[in-house]
Design goal:
255 residues; TIM Barrel; five-stranded parallel sheet
Length: 255
């Protein structure tokens, strides 16, 4: 059984004390494909080191996280494109809009999001979208950029059924993680109305641990709990869910 974690920050400082242990624990449980989203230029070196240490398992993205879109965002976007010219990446991400932490940067977040979508098209790469309290704003930008060569993953999807269908209409898979196991997560109530071909698994570790680890540091091995929840929702075997979602990730990342 091959399990794919399509979104995990394994370079995070949260894993500095036991990174090798938690990666090996995940691999032992069948998680052999880890897709690593970027945050900003300060993490690039750590990401490259992670790939160097686990060349068969780690697949890097490049991008500028919306919460890190600040006054220097053009310099950061130049770094993104510079890295794309000299290293292989599997997606542009994570990118998008986050209005939970700071609404004052909305306009430059939209510009950074749009620019990075255009980079994804230029380099023929998928995007990994971060959306927090910003579905309308995200859809507004996607509408202006929609095309057959725009595709990717709506990371950590927490919207409604209607928003799920709208995200899918833009050639996006839905990244499903720990929220699906929460009592108040809501998405578990309608996920079975979404064809599994539109779903990929993720942890977003070290964030958003699934039940029964909620509130603790998340790690990629906990994707098993998400996998078991989806098996229950879709009334399918864990093996079949793992196989379908891994194949979906291959369709997105072309690997």
């Amino acid at each position: 059984m091959i399990i794919t974690d399509t979104h995990t920050h394994l370079y995070s400082e949260a894993f500095d004390e036991d990174r090798e242990i938690i990666i090996n624990r995940a691999i032992e449980k069948g998680v052999s494909r880890f897709f690593i989203p970027a945050i900003d230029s300060t993490y690039t070196e750590s990401m490259l080191q992670l790939e160097n240490d686990y060349p068969e398992n780690m697949f890097l993205m490049m991008g500028l996280h919306p919460t890190h879109v600040k006054d220097n965002y053009m310099d950061e976007l130049n770094h993104v494109e510079n890295m794309l010219t000299k290293h292989k990446f599997y997606a542009i991400g994570e990118i998008g809009i986050d209005l939970y932490w700071d609404r004052s940067t909305l306009e430059i977040q939209k510009k950074a999001f749009k620019t990075q979508i255009q980079l994804a098209k230029k380099y023929k790469l998928p995007i990994a979208i971060h959306c927090r309290e910003a579905f309308d704003e995200i859809f507004e930008v996607l509408e202006t950029e929609k095309s057959d060569n725009l595709f990717g993953i709506f990371h950590c999807f927490t919207g409604t059924l209607e928003q799920a269908h709208k995200a899918i209409s833009y050639n996006m898979k839905l990244g499903i993680g720990g929220v699906a196991t929460f009592k108040n997560g809501k998405i578990d109530k309608f996920l079975n109305h979404i064809d599994l071909k539109h779903i990929v698994l993720e942890t977003d570790s070290p964030y958003l641990s699934p039940v029964p680890y909620r509130g603790k540091r998340n790690e990629s091995s906990y994707i098993i709990n998400v996998l078991e929840k989806l098996a229950s929702i879709y009334n399918m075997s864990v093996v079949d869910i793992a196989s379908i979602t891994t194949n979906n990730s291959k369709d997105v990342f072309n690997v």
